[in-house]
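Supplementary Note 2. Why include the ligand at all?

Several targets in our set were suspected to adopt different conformations when bound, so apo predictions alone were not considered sufficient. For every target with a known small-molecule partner we therefore ran a joint prediction. The input for zinc ion is given below.
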Amino acid sequence: MDFVKDLQKLEKTRKSLITQLRKKRLMVRGSYLQYYRKCGKLNCKCVKGKGHLFRRIAFSDKGHTRTIKIPKQDVAWIKKVTNNYRLFTQLLQQLAQVNSQIKTLLIEARDEMLTATKILKDYL
Ligand SMILES: [Zn+2]
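The joint prediction is reproduced in token form.
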């Protein structure tokens, strides 16, 4: 294992992740859902068809799943901004992994140097 090369590679990955995270994008937590549901009224036109179309986003709020109705004209926009949030969260997770790998490498290097230093002096 080449410590310097491994560290440089991780630093490069880290820099690239931060560059992507730095781009400010509009974002909304949640996943877009589209489904049909019958309203239950016996005289409604939906009795014969698939039901009424619902466009919503679902997201977690204090341990509960909540949904919000999305206006038809905002569907493309809401897909984009929820995707931005998902992407940002994924990048953050990758950054945390890289940071953890950098820390592990540095701890290994520290421990190697502790050992290498200790053997130089018999009082250590
Ligand atoms: Zn109906």
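The helical segments are 3-22, 75-118. The mean pLDDT is 95. Comparable summaries for the other entries are listed in the accompanying table.
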